[in-house]
Amino acid sequence: MRKTASRALAALFLVAVICIGLFVYIIRLARDGDEWTSFPVNSHAYRSGVLVKGTITDRNEEIISAVDEDGQRVFSDSESARRGLLHIVGDREGNIGTGILNLYSKQLMGYDFINGTYSLRGNGNTVHLTVDTELSAYAYEQIKYRKGAVAVYNYKTGELLCLVSTPGFDPDNVPVIEDGDERYDGAYMNRCLSSAFTPGSIFKIVTAAAAIETVDGIENMTFECDGSCEIDGETITCSGYHGTVGFYDALAQSCNCAFAEISQLVGANTLAKYAEKYGLTESHSISGITTAAGSFTKAPDGSTDLSWSGIGQYDDLVNPVAAMRLMGAIASGGIVREPYLVDRITTSGGLPTALVGKGGSSRIMTKETADKLKDMLSYNYTSNYCYTLGYIDGMCAKSGTAEVGEGEEPHSWYVGFIDDPECPLAFAVIVENGGWGLTTSGTIAANVIAKARESGCCS
Ligand SMILES: [Zn+2]
Prior knowledge:
Shape: globular
CATH topology of the domain at 137-341 and 358-454: Beta-lactamase
Largest sheet: 5 strands, mixed
Helix content: 25-40%
CATH class of the domain at 137-341 and 358-454: Alpha Beta
Number of helices: 14
Bound molecules: zinc ion
Low-confidence stretches: none
Oligomer: single chain
CATH superfamily of the domain at 137-341 and 358-454: DD-peptidase/beta-lactamase superfamily
């Protein structure tokens, strides 16, 4: 009897262990099944390490990457489009870490828990992006022989239309990239998302905003510029001899002497607070892709370094998408609509899969400050930039020419937006060592915006 009882107990124990094991397995399968199937050794979804499931389309449902009849991963027919979309779509080898082929491999495969790997017998899902192929190809052509980034988005809807990064390469004709080859410096990185650069004078927008809200009478003050000025016994050089300038002209002429003084009036703590509040020192999530955070170091009050930090030099760093996002907030009366890249994901039968996050919106500055900044950025354009770039309806912008070291050409920046409900676009352009902000990046931005209007990207 005793023997039978102990055997029954042992059998019960065994059954319990099996049940627990099965339970844990099912829970883990439900939770991690898509992760397990997305390993490149899974021959249902990968061929020689290349994902051969899933389609990626642009905002016009134009296919920008798919799997052909022979089961090969293919990209756009046009070389400029392949290059312009490289950092968004990714490459076959998976070197572009932030590419959709990498980050959305599970969704592209279309794995589901109920059907298991049987669900991988189809062509996979379609990831519908917000980018415009024609605009991306055009932006790439504008910047191609230089290193930099062009980011454009609709500040009312949050749709990202263009996120071009150079240098890159043609994914259909991949070069051999050796370590230290300058031509391909950072070629696998999307500079729009994963880099932060010295901002130079585009940072004066933040300093101006902080002054509007914290320095009494700032709009009636005047500043003196003799081509240079002294702060804490050291010389701050300016790009010109501006004489006596008011607050608006200080920004329009980008007078370093005026902003050296304004930075001292604002103070390091307040400047740091505004850089943070405006999202320049933090990372953002763009459809699950994390952007590089910028930085702002508080220099001692009264120091030359504090003046330089308010001018956009010193230790300041800004990410292009964060700069574009801030432009969108100013354009929208202080409310930022978060940019996003993935519009929706559908099965091969056209049915939507799980909902994708589209960012949402939040207020980052008061309407009064946003409207004042909008006036100032519009004045920059009408009183100064339009003589170089020609008349562009609704253009509000700030150029930046950021010093990056002795003997090196400065980084060229141009950020802004179109103040027009029919064409609500915000943008950021940077060309590394590109020289003057206005002439190099301003020209690229003006051309890209004209192209966006022409190709129906405004709605
Ligand atoms: Zn000046």
